[in-house]
Specification:
- The longest helix is centred in the first third of the chain and has 10 residues, at about 15-25.
- This protein has four helices and six strands, in the order H-E-E-H-E-E-H-E-E-H.
- It has helices spanning about 15-25, 50-55, 80-85, 115; strands at about 30-35, 40, 60-65, 70, 90-95, 100.
- By secondary structure, it is α+β, with helices and mostly antiparallel strands.
- The chain has a two-stranded antiparallel sheet. Strands 3-4 form a two-stranded antiparallel ribbon. The protein has a two-stranded antiparallel ribbon with strand order 5-6.
């Protein structure tokens, strides 16, 4: 299973990962938070027992065979329960359209784009 490991001490807040994700998906599925002078990339960890999946009332969040936690945007009703359930804060919502977005591990690519463009190796 593909998994993104965050090396928080290496992130310099350049934003290349956010920009690349935004170009690929229109809305970024990764964010960078600042905490006590350090930058922390926030991205879905594709939890084995995903709390977001457990609370979804329409089963729009599923595990794929490779372990990726996938959101079916067509099934999603925008209730926001997954946002509250995610322990990493890695799920995004467009509050105007009530559409949920989360990392799909760049499912159609061999490697996650955010890892490729990260100049410091903060995402591995």
């Amino acid at each position: 299973m593909k998994k993104i490991i965050m090396v928080n001490s290496e992130c310099d807040n350049c934003g290349d990962c956010v920009k690349a994700c935004m170009e690929l998906h229109k809305i970024s599925r990764i964010a960078i938070l600042e905490h006590e002078g350090r930058y922390l990339p926030v991205v879905c960890q594709h939890c084995a027992s995903a709390p977001c999946k457990e609370v979804c009332p329409v089963e729009a969040i599923t595990h794929k065979e490779d372990g990726t936690v996938y959101l079916d945007e067509e099934k999603c009703i925008g209730c926001g329960l997954c946002l509250d359930a995610c322990p990493f804060g890695a799920i995004r919502m467009d509050y105007n359209s009530k559409v949920i977005f989360k990392c799909n591990g760049c499912a159609k690519r061999d490697e996650e784009l955010c890892k490729i463009v990260c100049p410091t190796g903060a995402l591995d």
